[in-house]
Amino acid sequence: MTGQSLTLLEVEALARAAHEGQTDKAGRPYAEHLAAVAEGVRLRGGSPEQQAAAWLHDSVEDDALSAEWLASAALPDAVKAIVLALTKRPGEPLEEYAARILATPGAVLVKEADLAHNADPVRLSVLDDPTRDRLSAKYAYVRSLLGITVP
Predict the structure, then answer these.
(1) Residue 39 to residues 30, 51, 110: CA-CA distances in angstroms?
(2) Quick one: pLDDT band at residue 25, thresholds 50, 70, 90?
(3) How confident is the model at residue 79 (pLDDT cuts 50, 70, 90)?
(4) Which of 6, 38, 75, 135 has a C-alpha 20 to 30 A away from that of 47?
(5) Separation CA 115–CA 109 (nearest Å)
(6) What's the CA gap between 71 and 81, in Å, rounded?
(7) CA dihedral 93, 28, 12, 92 (to 10 degrees)
(8) Is 125 helix (H, G, I), strand (E, B) or coil?
């Protein structure tokens, strides 16, 4: 990519605007999840590119932004690659999804922060038992596929 890239603050503002009005499974504003993942990446020593990808990690999957927008955005190629790696395709087996994340430099750290926030017991506590159990098992399986251990 040539030219000036969006700053991290610009990426944050863009992600917040793109997900405006969306809520997570617990009914909270979706931007809270994005902020938590970006902060989790920062606390894990993630680069500015990984932090930008954290803000955008669900944007294509959730149709908040298009893949075409991402392709032409003023972002480093590494950010685009991480976002695309973390974009789960409809019907895609978790094993293929995890393999793509493992093959993309920088993506595992972003997914680790995403899974940590998704699996937060406080977040999960507001869900019904079957949903909480299903999601907890899914998150644990994805962590195992990625070789992420929980401290």
Answers:
(1) 15, 8, 10
(2) confident
(3) very high
(4) 135
(5) 10
(6) 10
(7) 10
(8) coil
